[in-house]
Amino acid sequence: MPDNKAKTLKPASDAVEILHRRLYEGKPARLKNLEEARANEEIARRIQELRAAAALTQTQLAKLIGTTASVICRLEDADYEGHSLAMLRRIAGALNQRVEIRFVPIRRSA
Amino acid sequence: MPDNKAKTLKPASDAVEILHRRLYEGKPARLKNLEEARANEEIARRIQELRAAAALTQTQLAKLIGTTASVICRLEDADYEGHSLAMLRRIAGALNQRVEIRFVPIRRSA
DNA sequence: CAGTCTATTCGCAATATTGCGAAAACGCAA
DNA sequence: TTGCGTTTTCGCAATATTGCGAATAGACTG
Prior knowledge:
By secondary structure, the first copy, chain A, is mostly helical. Helix content of chain A is 59%, strand content 8%.
């Protein structure tokens, strides 16, 4: 590690405090929510795309994964914020896909 | 961490993968569960990797996202199956990452 | 050895997501 | 217009995930 500062015991928690401050000062909650909202919107659209590509109705897809059409509709709603990994996997499975999850670094332009 | 197998890397898993593919070929349900289990394991490991790379303890990361260490520990447990998109995003956000979700086609049968 | 930091496990309450039916709205074609 | 299939919205129960403290175990140091 390039950090040559003496590793005293206390500074660690202070650093966390600072990080915490930076996290929420540099990146306002509303901006974070915006990005999340857009991500959810994309998921919803993708589900609809895949279902359409498979030529299935909401009811048909619902039956494939053992639920009802209203649930599928909710998933395809761009404003829905409750996407879970479990549900995405069920959808993907029925559509012959798999869900890939990646953590990618955010490049924060200085 | 009593479970040290998380530290083993991929090399040996290829053979295991082949064996499992032979055993479970034609049995989608079980294969699917296996893949899910492995995916969860990978997520858990990834979270731990990212946290370690950020030089944070579970308690520190927990505070960053407004929760407790036991929750982080649970997320890093390879056997945990309750990963949610919401939580992954909170973790990612605190670690300066974003969660990317992709649906990728499964090529069934080999 | 004691002391400290870290990680892990357990239990239960609080919150979030899903299940599911019903009704209404939409699109389209006869 | 009607009829039919599809989609959307709503409400609530059922299930799943999270919050959180407390207790335990492990690693490391003096």
